[in-house]
Amino acid sequence: MNSNIKVSVIIPIYNTERYLRECLDSVAGQTLRDIEVICVNDGSTDSSGGICDEYAQRDSRFRVIHQQNRGQGYARNVGIDRAAGKYVIFLDSDDRWCPEALETLYAEAERNNTQVLCFGATKFEDGTEKIIRVYRYTGQIGLVRNGADSVKTSLDAVEFFSESCFRFYLLEYLRSSHLRFDEGSIHEDTRFTFLSCLLAERIECIDAQLYWYRERVGSTMVNRSAKESAHGICVGIDGLLDAYEERPLSDAGREQLERFVVWRINKLRKQYDRAAEERKESVSWIQRDSRRTLKRARKRLSLPWSARLATYSLYADRLVRRLKRKLKKLKGSQ
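Below the sequence we write its predicted structure tokens.
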């Protein structure tokens, strides 16, 4: 760790030449100057790598790592390994920050000695700048709490946002907790984000929308199939179950982890339904891929009946829900 570097900014980059200058300009223009910027060029085939090199040549705070394409999770892990700042934060290469973002986050983290600082974001439509959604916390603003209590409040209020980019981390906390992103799948940050919050002894949420989150056609999340999404969800659930078995969690922590796994199982059901409605061959693949994960969840966790039913068969769960809807219609017509 370099005492002169207050914040390490980690940006995984893959074929985002259209947006990359806007992203990097928002970092270079931050009012907090004592930062390093780690650009991980993840095998881009467009001009993204050259753009990164250009910024590194004119601003010594920028460092570029060129590597073969390994995915966002791997790229972020490389960034964590190379980071030298006291704090670390992640930024996607098609998004941007408000100019005062890092100064605001650094000052608040220092003031309250937080390990994880959660903040809000504004999601906007590419091309039009139309605001689609505002991510914000309402139930625990300005309170420094332990992870289990904070996660419970967020889940109760449906305010747990799984994007790792919406948090400001103490680097030593991430390393001492051995927190890593999943590699080789999408939804790579869901498990990381949840565990980083749950395991924290000091976590705070602030009501500040500092991140501009672009929704665009062709992005990783928009362009993925139900099959790929379901697989990523299963990888994340397996990682959560590993934590349940291996981490020294409190009873309150275990309870919140179970709730979060149920939420992810519901997400898995939605991907199965999506594949089934499109009548794609991926339906049977999703069933096979999820079978071991769901069986493991059923054995280890205390699940409500609806989630437990899904762990036996996604198809059976879908069938039961269809029957319930038909019964409801029949009763309504009588």
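The chain has two domains: 7-215, 224-301.
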